[in-house]
Structure formats: structure tokens, C-alpha cells
């Protein structure tokens, strides 16, 4: 019961503090911008009487760029919304009035986690669904394996959410934010080092990328999602921003899932034991 | 440690191991260390049910940390604490406890009524019962007209009062009030005093942690003096304030022999001009002293027992050198 109350409070807090509405407005502005760009692109390509296959590839590439932006936007939003939730409430003492109520501490963490997941899922669903609907209506193009790609992007945000909550039980809000976003940056850089290493056939560089993915597998999840979603033709073109020369394996996806679960378990464990 | 203290600690330890039903709180050698700082050295304490118990001590004496250990917010480094018959922090026991933290802060985007509803839900209260209780409590803390105002627009005193209301939602058996009158104006302090009295009449136990000794003086049954994270003395407040009364007598015909005779009942006797001052350990002897003076042909114009405040007692017992 306490778990659902905490989930509800977390959701209501985002709505009441206008974070939810601002994020939604940013998402809609993003979709509007994408629609405008796609409109001019299609009009220009049609005027040039291009090859019909190529005509589909360009909106498809724009769709992938859009999905990449959505992925980044959702990850950053998730970290920013969740960064203060435990650390801030611990440092301000707000948590004391809750933690002395008859609910186990794990329900506080899990409730907040669920509240953020509901928000993030709705946000990601709206943007991924919206952008695919736009490209379908305007260019009869959608991403391949949207469900699978969505699941991987969703897991990436859940991963960052769990890691942010874990850091929140240890560190102040600022340190938590620096660490969480720092890890996202590390994974991004590691992913590119791995791709460049694969193209230039440099195994050591590939290994550096893999180690970075083991430290934070978020970018690996995106690259896997991108590979699943983009057209086979685009996948053949090595070294495009979204084709993976060195494709993250299913084991890496499972590792990311395990990483997420462990981050949540350790967040609960730490919060249950620490002094408040 | 004196032999009497050792006996008290041993008895308390035995009771803590086999919690007595008449005790709301029993702790034995409760200790908390943060890094190399000892916050609470060894708290041994018994608070009977139905009592308003004052927790007094200088800043940094370990009062708030002790309260947090009793609530399960902070784990003790050593020792044992039994609250309402269960180990401190027990989840089910928390349903019978109310707590007002020292600086009550909560989600400032909630309204006063929403805050109470949320806490009532966390206590597992039914919707209909909660609705009625919220109205009663808002009335009690005089915030009915601010029920729909966001907490961010509340003054410090209003926040303290809504915090007190949330501590009373579940009609708790045990209430921890950590500096409940901090930030309150005289009217607000009066409200808190009346609430504490009403809770005692209801049969609840109240542990009051306050710097305002005048508040403690008018509300508490017993007090514990804490220094350096240890209870140095626990006393019934009535006895504490009545013992050691200093009396000032203004009279004509006072003699040195008469003053020496007063020593039979009193100590610290001094005679200067027409003024005699002495201290008695019980007020019951005062009529005898007065009769003795009159029988000795002193013309008594004034016979005034001086009231010693809790602050005087506090400084006497704890000293003025502060805490840790």
C-alpha cells in the first residue's frame, strides 16, 4: 500500500512542480520541429524526382536522428527529475516524517522508482509513438522493430533511473547528478571509441569501448536499439551514426538488465540501512 | 559511576531485555558514534506510559540523535532500545507513534490538507475516518482557513503547527515532539501546551525535547537531564522544583542567636541588617520556622519563599559549559 502511495506522490510532485508539463512541452516542441524539418525535406526531395528507394531512406535517416534525440532527451530528463528525490529529501530532513510512518523503507525507494517509471514510460511512449506516426503519415516510413527498440530505449532510462537512485542514497544531489550524467558521457565516448576501433580494426580500442560499456551500458543499449530500428540498407553502410560495426551482444543487453536490477537492489539496501 | 547508578543501569538493562508493559520507552546503554564523534555515550532511560517526559540538555548533548534512535531513523552503534514493547524502529509499532521532527519540512507543493491526507494514508487510515480527523486537527492547530494553501506559503509557525497535526493523525500512544514550539509565537506556544495536556489526558505518552525550559516546566511530569550523551539525572518535575527553596525574611528584632536556631531546619543561613536568608530542602518546614521566629519576638514584615525556576535547576545540574 505504502509503495503505491509513494509512487502516486512522486508522480504528483512532478506534475505539481510543472516538471512533467515542461518536459511534455519540450517533447511537443521537438515533434513540431521534426515535423517542420521533415515537411521541407520531403517537399524538396519530391521536387527533385529522386529514386523512390532513396526517397524512403532520407525520412528513415531523419527518423533515426529523431529517435536518437528522443533517447538522449529521455535519459537526461530521467536523471534530472530523479536526481534530487532521495539525496535532497535526506539532506533537508523531509524524509524523516515519511520514514517514521508504518511502511518499510524499501517501499519508499521502490514507490519512487515506480512513479518515475510511469512518467518516463509515458514520455518515451508519446515521443517514440509520435515521431513514428509523423513519419508514417508524411512519408509512409516507420522504424523497424519499434517494440523491440522501444524496450531497449526504455531499459536505458530505467538503468539510469536506478543508478541515480543508488547514488542518491549515498551522495548529495549535486554529486549524484555529476556522477550519473558523467557515466552517460563516459558510455557515449566509449561507444564511439569502440565503433572507430572496429572500423580501423584496432582491437584495443574496441576493448576500451567494451570496458566503458561494462562500466555504464546505456550507450550499448541505444546502439542495439538503433540497429534493430533502422533500415537494413542503412545498417549496411558502416560508420553511419547509427550503424554498429561492433554490435553490442545480447549478453550485453542482459548485463544491462542485471546492472539495473542490482542498482535498484543496492539503492534499497543502502537506504534501508543508512541513518536518516 | 556510583553504586546506586550501577544498580539503576543493571535494573534498566534487565527490563530492556524483558520489556515491561508499563514502559513506553526503555533504553539500555544506547550509544551512537559518527566517525570519531560520540553523539550519544550511553543512554539509559525509562519512560512510563502516560507520562509527559522532558528531555533536557545543552546543544549537542545528543538529544535529537537519541530521539532518532528511538524512532529507528538512526541505528545505534551499541545498546538496546525498546519502544512500546518492541525494538525501536519496528514497522508495525510505528503505527502507534507520532513524530514532529525538529525542523519540520515537507513537500512544499502540497496544501495543508493534502499533507495530512498523505500522512493519514501512510498510517493506513480509512478515507472517511481520515476526512473527519483532518478537519478536527486543522481546527485544533488553528489552520482551518489555511487548509487549501500550499505549504510554501506557510510561515514557520504554521509549518510547525501543521507538522504537529500530522504527528497526531493516528491518535498515537507515543508522541515524540522535537522542539515543538520553535518558531511559534506566544499564541502558538499556548496551542502546543494545550495539545500536550490533552494528549496526557487521553493517556498518551509524550517525549518532549525542548530548549524552552518554561514550556517543559508547565507541561512535563518528569525530566531527564542529558549531558555529553548520557542521562545525568532523571527527576519528577514537581519534586525537583519544590525542593531546595530559598526564603527571604524581612523582620525587626532579628538576632544572631535566632539565626543560629534556624539552622535546625535550614542551611545557608545569613543575617544582614533586618534581612534573614536561608534555604530549606522541604517547604513543609516553613511554618515551623516562621513560628520559631515569631516566638523569638521577631517582628516579621515579609516571609518570602523564592521560586527556583527549571532554568536555575538546569544550570545547577547540567552546568553552563554547554554540551559536547
What letter string, H or E per element, gives the SSE order of chain A? HHHHHHHHHHHH
How large is the count of helical segments of chain A? 12
Calculate the mean pLDDT score of chain B and round it: 87
- Termini gap of chain A: 22 Å
Quote the average pLDDT of chain A.
90
Question: Could you list the spans of chain A in which at least 5 consecutive residues all have pLDDT below 50?
Answer: none
Strand content of chain B: 25-35%
The strand order across the widest sheet of chain B is 6-7-8-3-9-10
**Could you estimate the helical fraction of the residues of chain A in percent?**
over 70%
Number of helices of chain B: 11
Radius of gyration of chain A, whole Å = 20 Å
Poorly predicted segments of chain B: none
Order of helices and strands of chain B: HEEEHEEEHHHEHEHEEHEHEEHEH
Blueprint (SSEs and pairs):
The complex is a heterodimer of chains A (276) and B (324).
Chain A: H1 2-16, H2 19-47, H3 52-82, H4 87-92, H5 94-99, H6 105-139, H7 146-168, H8 173-199, H9 203-215, H10 218-229, H11 232-236, H12 250-273
Chain B: H1 3-17, E1 23-34, E2 37-48, E3 52-56, H2 63-71, E4 78-83, E5 86-87, E6 97-100, H3 112-122, H4 127-140, H5 156-167, E7 174-178, H6 186-202, E8 205-209, H7 213-219, E9 222-227, E10 230-236, H8 237-242, E11 245-252, H9 256-262, E12 267-272, E13 275-280, H10 286-295, E14 299-306, H11 310-318
Parallel strand pairs in B: 3-8, 3-9, 6-7, 7-8
Antiparallel strand pairs in B: 1-2, 1-4, 4-5, 9-10, 11-13, 11-14, 12-13
Helix pairs in contact in B: 3-4
Amino acid at each position: 500500500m505504502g509503495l503505491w502511495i509513494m509512487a502516486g506522490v512522486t508522480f504528483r510532485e512532478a506534475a505539481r512542480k510543472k516538471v512533467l508539463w515542461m518536459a511534455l512541452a519540450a517533447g511537443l516542441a521537438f515533434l513540431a520541429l521534426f515535423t517542420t524539418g521533415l515537411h521541407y525535406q520531403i517537399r524538396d526531395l519530391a521536387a527533385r524526382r529522386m529514386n523512390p528507394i532513396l526517397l524512403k531512406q532520407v525520412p528513415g535517416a531523419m527518423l533515426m536522428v529523431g529517435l536518437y534525440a528522443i533517447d538522449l532527451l529521455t535519459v537526461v530528463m530521467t536523471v534530472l527529475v530523479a536526481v534530487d528525490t532521495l539525496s535532497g529529501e535526506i539532506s533537508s530532513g523531509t524524509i524523516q516524517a515519511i520514514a517514521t510512518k508504518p511502511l518499510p523503507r524499501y517501499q519508499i525507494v521502490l514507490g519512487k522508482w515506480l512513479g518515475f517509471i510511469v512518467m518516463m514510460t509515458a514520455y518515451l511512449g508519446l515521443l517514440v509513438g509520435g515521431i513514428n506516426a509523423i513519419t508514417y503519415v508524411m512519408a509512409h516510413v516507420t522504424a523497424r522493430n519499434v517494440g523491440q527498440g522501444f524496450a531497449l530505449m526504455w531499459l536505458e532510462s530505467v538503468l539510469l533511473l536506478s543508478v541515480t537512485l543508488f547514488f542518491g542514497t549515498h551522495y548529495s544531489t549535486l554529486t549524484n547528478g555529476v556522477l550519473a550524467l558523467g557515466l552517460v558521457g563516459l558510455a557515449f565516448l566509449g561507444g564511439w571509441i569502440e565503433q572507430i576501433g572496429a572500423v580501423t580494426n584496432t582491437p584495443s580500442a574496441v576493448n576500451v569501448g567494451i570496458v566503458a560499456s561494462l562500466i555504464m551500458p546505456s550507450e550499448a543499449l541505444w546502439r542495439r536499439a538503433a540497429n534493430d530500428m533502422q533500415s537494413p540498407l542503412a545498417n549496411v553502410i558502416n560508420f553511419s551514426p547509427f550503424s554498429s560495426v561492433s554490435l553490442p551482444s545480447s549478453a550485453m543487453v542482459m548485463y544491462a538488465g542485471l546492472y539495473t536490477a542490482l542498482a535498484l537492489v543496492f539503492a534499497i539496501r543502502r537506504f534501508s540501512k543508512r541513518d536518516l | 559511576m556510583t553504586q546506586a547508578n550501577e544498580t539503576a543501569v543493571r535494573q534498566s538493562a534487565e527490563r530492556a531485555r524483558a520489556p515491561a508493559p508499563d514502559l513506553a520507552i526503555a533504553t539500555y546503554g544506547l550509544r551512537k558514534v559518527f566517525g570519531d564523534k560520540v553523539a550519544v555515550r550511553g543512554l539509559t532511560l525509562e519512560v512510563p506510559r502516560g507520562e509527559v517526559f522532558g528531555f533536557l540538555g545543552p546543544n549537542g548533548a545528543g538529544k535529537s540523535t537519541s530521539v532518532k534512535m528511538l524512532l529507528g531513523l538512526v541505528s545505534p552503534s551499541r545498546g538496546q532500545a525498546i519502544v512500546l514493547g518492541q525494538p525501536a524502529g519496528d514497522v508495525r509499532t510505528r503505527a502507534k507513534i507520532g513524530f514532529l521532527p525538529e525542523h519540520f519540512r515537507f513537500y512544499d507543493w502540497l496544501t495543508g490538507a493534502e499533507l495530512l491526507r498523505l500522512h493519514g494514508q501512510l498510517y493506513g487510515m480509512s478515507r472517511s475516518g481520515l476526512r473527519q480527523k483532518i478537519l478536527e486537527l486543522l481546527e485544533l492547530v488553528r489552520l482551518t482557513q489555511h487548509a487549501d494553501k500550499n505549504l510554501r506559503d506557510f510561515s514557520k509557525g504554521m509549518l510547525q503547527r501543521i507538522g504537529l497535526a500530522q504527528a497526531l493523525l493516528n491518535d498515537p500512544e507515543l508522541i515524540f515532539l522535537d522542539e515543538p514550539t520553535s518558531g511559534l509565537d506566544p499564541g502558538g506556544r499556548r496551542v502546543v501546551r494545550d495539545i500536550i495536556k490533552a494528549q496526557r489526558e487521553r493517556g498518551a505518552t509524550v517525549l518532549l525535547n525542548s530548549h524552552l525550559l518554561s514550556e517543559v516546566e508547565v507541561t512535563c511530569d518528569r525530566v531527564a537531564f542529558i549531558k555529553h550523551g548520557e542521562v545525568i539525572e532523571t527527576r519528577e518535575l514537581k519534586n525537583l522544583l519544590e525542593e531546595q527553596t530559598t526564603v527571604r525574611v524581612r523582620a525587626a528584632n532579628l538576632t544572631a542567636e535566632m539565626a543560629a536556631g534556624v539552622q535546625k531546619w535550614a542551611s545557608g543561613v545569613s543575617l544582614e541588617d533586618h534581612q534573614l536568608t536561608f534555604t530549606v530542602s522541604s517547604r513543609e518546614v516553613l511554618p515551623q520556622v516562621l513560628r520559631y521566629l515569631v516566638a523569638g519576638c521577631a517582628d516579621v514584615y515579609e516571609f518570602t519563599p523564592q521560586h527556583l525556576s527549571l532554568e536555575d535547576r538546569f544550570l545547577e545540574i547540567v552546568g553552563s559549559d554547554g554540551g559536547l
